[in-house]
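Please check this record.
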Amino acid sequence: MADTRRVPDLGALELLLAVVRLGGVGRAAAELGVTQPAASARIRSLEDKVGVPLLERSARGSRPTEAGALVAEWARQVLDAAQAMDAGIAALRERHDPRLRIAASLTVAECLMPGWLVALRETHPDTAVTLRAAGSTEVAEQVRIGGADLGFVEGARTPAGLSGTVVAADKLVVVVAPRHPWARRRDGVTAEELAGTPLILRDGGAGTREVLDRALSSFGGTAPPLLRPASTTALKAAAVAGAGPVVVSELAAADELSGGRLVAIPVHGLDLNRPLRAVWPSGRRPTGPARDLLALTRRSRAGAGG
């Protein structure tokens, strides 16, 4: 069995190859993000371990000795093998990692995610899924910092620093209790009237609020909220109780609208359509269960569209 005590670590081999390629320890140190004294010390340690000089140093830089050129060639093979092993391990992890961390806006988490996860479980019964429901702003941040493998947000644009794709269509509706004065209006309300009316609204980090604020920006924005419930369920409960008008996802209010507990009020001159997106860090495509869930949402959308 080989004596691994004589085998340099991968970092030292990478440094040696950089010196050979760039012709100087200083240039190699700058490329690898270490100080020149630290790089020089590491090269000396490498030479001590190998037992022969590896570099010829001069005022013009450094070049490999005959032994150094031979060790550099071996180092290149070792590093290639290490990269291949790393890629293989990543592939194994992708196939067998049983975890999936999801962060989703409340609308997606409550209205769409249950069905998607049931379908995912049919093909990945061993995957342990954690779901965090939050406002779209917080969801985007969780994906950026690595706290979630895949995020689902509401809003007109993909958040900065993330890539995304539309997985569902939704629209906001203005709803009131059947006894509210607006419920007796045949023609609904105007955008100006909606902007001037105190509404029951979620906080600013919610995707619903972002879409509404943008839609009403040319009409003076939203009036100070009447109430600020912490969840969509509380939002709808306040509307059913007659507390005032609510702007909510049509998906989220479907049961209350079909059951007659809430009434949808047309708003003239306002586009409240919005996409729902899956998002992930820019430059990194979803892998493993996250990739499979994303594919499932796309198939669901295609089926709904057909």
Observations:
- Residues 66-96 form the longest helix (31 residues).
